Amino acid sequence: MARISTPPTSAPKTTGLLSAAVVVAALGYFVDIYDLILFSIVRVPSLKDLGITAAADVTNLGTHLISMQMGGMLLGGILWGVLGDKRGRLSVLFGSILLYSLANIANGFVQTIDQYAWLRLIAGIGLAGELGAGITLVAETLPKEKRGYGTMIVATVGVSGAMLAYWVGEVLGWRNAYFVGGGLGLALLVLRVSVFESGMFEQAKQQGVARGDFFSLFTNGPRLLKYIKCLLIGVPLWFVVGILITLAPEFGRALGIQGEVTAGLAVFWCYFGLVFGDFASGTISQLLRSRNRALQLFLVLCGLLIAVYLFGIRGASPTVFYAVCFVLGISVGFWALFVTVAAEQFGTNLRATVATTAPNFARGSVVGLVPLFNGIAAAMAGPSGTPNLIGSGAVVGVLSLLVAFWAVSTLPESYGKDLDYLEVS
């Protein structure tokens, strides 16, 4: 794979960790996570309010709606990624925020399941752009020695949006929670005036090399394999969030938890853990001077905590269950580190495409994980015909962790890598 080194960009790199780019990317990710995880929090009350009362229907329609949202993220990942390299990081950062904000405001008015599903699809498309564009912008504007800390700040601030979503959903109700999320996004757009485009991107525009060519990822064997590896690293996180945490009430019943388990509290505690995990993973990658070793450490921890969740708390109290959700959240707190690695693996003319599609394809893996999980659960059902959620969770969890560990172990180390180059073959 050939590269072209580019001359120094005309705009100097920002040296401060709390630059406008970092602050806006962090606040944008905060609103992104609020809106992204809100459905998992309000799934049960919103469906019941729309007339869905049977527990099985709440589960089945809930997984359908989250699949629609994640399917939108698959489409949006490609759309925003290509636009990020063709039109610029800022265009995507704020265009995606506008789309998901309007979709979530509309979501507060839904009256039917079909309306709900299509709006989750549109919101998913919008939610697909913010993180990749924000991480790319931060990575390209901070010195290479500091960019790990910059993306750590983005993640740590961002994932705390889930806790606000839980509080708003509990206090104001599910419809108002969607209105608040949309309003926060629209308010964030006023900060656009304080952020400047990446100097590396501006320089790449002058090089005469194709930018944002998504299909070029598939025309070069080594590049394609590297891209697939980047995608696989994030799958375990969305197995945990999309299945173990979103279906916490169902797992609580399967585990015989001695009291009611709610998805809202499970999400709250998991994302509270993610705040600490993202801070820790970013810091550890800087201290070890290695992204790969930090990711390996967290994947091992994730495997241990999945085992505890599925096999170590049977018959426990809800308090113990939520405590495990919190520590499980810490163990998957490598999300921004994963996106940073994806951004660092590719040249400036493909960086936004990869940094945006990789996390959204990882999020969108829920579309495949859900039927796989349901199919294995049904195949492992006991004599009563009850799906075996525990056994299926173990199988899917092991598979996702194995492929992720293989991927990160075979990727080139990217800590301290100079990002000022182009992909040309």
From TrEMBL:
Cellular component terms (Gene Ontology): plasma membrane
UniProt-annotated location(s): Membrane
Keywords: Membrane, Transmembrane, Transmembrane helix
Residue intervals of the Major facilitator superfamily (MFS) profile domain: 21-415
Residues annotated as transmembrane: 20-41, 61-83, 90-110, 116-137, 149-169, 175-195, 230-249, 261-282, 294-313, 319-343, 364-383, 389-408
SUPFAM superfamilies linked: MFS general substrate transporter
Main location as per UniProt: membrane
Membrane association type: Multi-pass membrane protein
Gene Ontology molecular functions: carboxylic acid transmembrane transporter activity
InterPro entries: MFS, MFS_dom, MFS_trans_sf
Coiled-coil blocks: none
PANTHER family: CARBOXYLIC ACID TRANSPORTER PROTEIN HOMOLOG
Protein name (Swiss-Prot/TrEMBL): MFS transporter
